[in-house]
Amino acid sequence: MFRNFSLVSNTGDARHFPEFRRLSLEIHEENLRDASTSQDKLDVIRAVERHGLLITKDASRRPASMASEVQLCLNTVWDEVISTAEVLDFDQDAALHDQLVSLLLSLKEFDTLCRALYPSANPFPSWESYQFGERLQSAGTSSKALAVGICGDSLSRTALSCLRNALEVDDEAKAVARLPMAVVWIDHCRHQLVAFSVMNRFGENTDDRGAGSFLAAQIGGHDVEVGGYSLERWLFWRKRFQTLSHHADAVVANEAKTGFMSMISCGLDLDCDVPGEAGFREKVAVAMSDELNASGRPSVDIDDINVDVGWVDQVEAA
């Protein structure tokens, strides 16, 4: 049985807020422990939403003198969202990740409405400024949040860090273990990521420690400067998926091919000139035409042909 959250005290007594936070997180953790089914997890998300709406509304009416208490309450909501995201599975709970992103959009819009209704009583920055994006590390929820424009700057940095840690390591065991996370990021927000790459987002301001020499060595030596997003880095990630698609473990190979296929045409979707994409698409079109003629069927799609990731090398070598 789920416990309900307590309301924020309206007395304005700052002494009540730490206890409120403690009780709220205690109730939330208890609810998470009791959530054994998808419906249970959905009930937790709905409870967090109700709690978030109450806190967001309360924050819009607090005086400037209570800024630290307001931040404490908002951080409580983000702790609840983040801990919920962390218990959701990539695949089995995909719909619940969507629900969690919808919750974030609802809170963002509710915050905007409260500010419009009570402008003189609102001395605080928007809820996105309370480092929520920096703390949300679940790939399933973070990638979907970035895809719909939530906390774009901080989550795009999170994506960069996650993809570097997954695709720019020379330890194959680590690369394989982190591959599903990388595929989730690429699958959910590939158009944002390729756009960031074309625009060289973050440039030299991004701390590149941890990505290090492996990336530089693989793309031609340490004279190559790759700090943040870049087209060079994007192509390197694509090559890593391509290489891992030949892995001896069929599960790993299929996962990597999924990542490669998610990347290989998203530049074209945005009319960006990404090397290899146009030629690869032509190869796919020819293969589909051949399959159509050979099969005698009225139509075929890409799942009806055996796509060779090596086609991109043939295109680039031509």
UniProtKB/TrEMBL annotation:
Pfam family, one: DUF3632
Name of the molecule in the record: Uncharacterized protein
